[in-house]
Amino acid sequence: MNRTVFFVSESTGITAETLGHSLLTQFDSVDFEQVYMPYINTDLRAKALTQRLQEAADRDGARPIVFATMLNEEIRDIIKSGNCFYMELFEVFVGPLSKELGVPPSMKSGRSHAITKPSFYTKRIEAINFAMANDDGIRPDNFHRADVVLTGVSRSGKTPTCLYLAMHYGLRSANYPITEEDFERGDVPQLLYDCKDKLFALTIDPQRLQLIREERRPGSPYASLKRCQDDIRVAQQMFKRLQVPTLNTTTQSIEEISSQIIKALKERQEGRPLELTEMGGAAGR
């Protein structure tokens, strides 16, 4: 089954796309063609969109689905008059929430991604700069300034997770890749033991690691399954000595890994005991 989906907004459309995409993931038997349509903020643009909706309906043999965040009722009505299945995302939540709070909503577009808290925005920018400057163990002398330090074998997801933590949570994140010297010595440097209170280890299934490394260095010893298996095995021994939480990135997204790290950090702050076994599934399955 093929269906066209439009993410529509009078502003950036980030909210419509994010929530709409999350809903679509529950229907993996359908092949969705996704169309991003931000800044539909005039009657003319709305009418032009209805033409595209009709074209999609004619092509697919089924009306397209529209996920929208449209606060302007006139423009919303124009789009709804088109040949589509229209879902107004704000409408579902804002009314009941307003009733519960006892205050009317502001009905201002673009609020969810606007810079409403300049101090936090500045913190996020600083955190992103920190993550980029402290990637791949470039500045281990800065680990004491980090909020989070990640370690793991090459290509286990350290860099994207650090950037996500910086961008979405404003955390200064650094990472340390386990090196050839570490494998030969059979242990990580003392500097990782010194920052155990903020350290998390990332692991990954050898088969998945091989696929990722093969894309980077096709046919190399670095990408061989045996090398991946050996690297993961020795790294797991290091993590056990470190006694730090280990998160498996094999089947989990960056968002899921990051949420586990945030949860663990909050538990540390609250003085609750952390589970030092692997979080999110076992490696080497």
UniProtKB/TrEMBL annotation:
ADP binds at G152, V153, S154, R155, S156, G157, K158, T159. Keywords: Kinase, Nucleotide-binding, Serine/threonine-protein kinase, Transferase. Bifunctional serine/threonine kinase and phosphorylase involved in the regulation of the phosphoenolpyruvate synthase (PEPS) by catalyzing its phosphorylation/dephosphorylation. One of its GO terms (molecular function) is ADP binding. Belongs to the pyruvate, phosphate/water dikinase regulatory protein family. PSRP subfamily. It is an enzyme of class 2 (transferase). It holds the Pfam family Kinase-PPPase. This is Putative phosphoenolpyruvate synthase regulatory protein. InterPro entries: Kinase-pyrophosphorylase, PSRP. NCBIfam families: PRK05339.1. Its EC number is 2.7.11.33, 2.7.4.28. It comes from Thiorhodococcus mannitoliphagus. The keyword Kinase applies. It catalyses: [pyruvate, water dikinase] + ADP = [pyruvate, water dikinase]-phosphate + AMP + H(+); [pyruvate, water dikinase]-phosphate + phosphate + H(+) = [pyruvate, water dikinase] + diphosphate. The keyword Kinase applies.
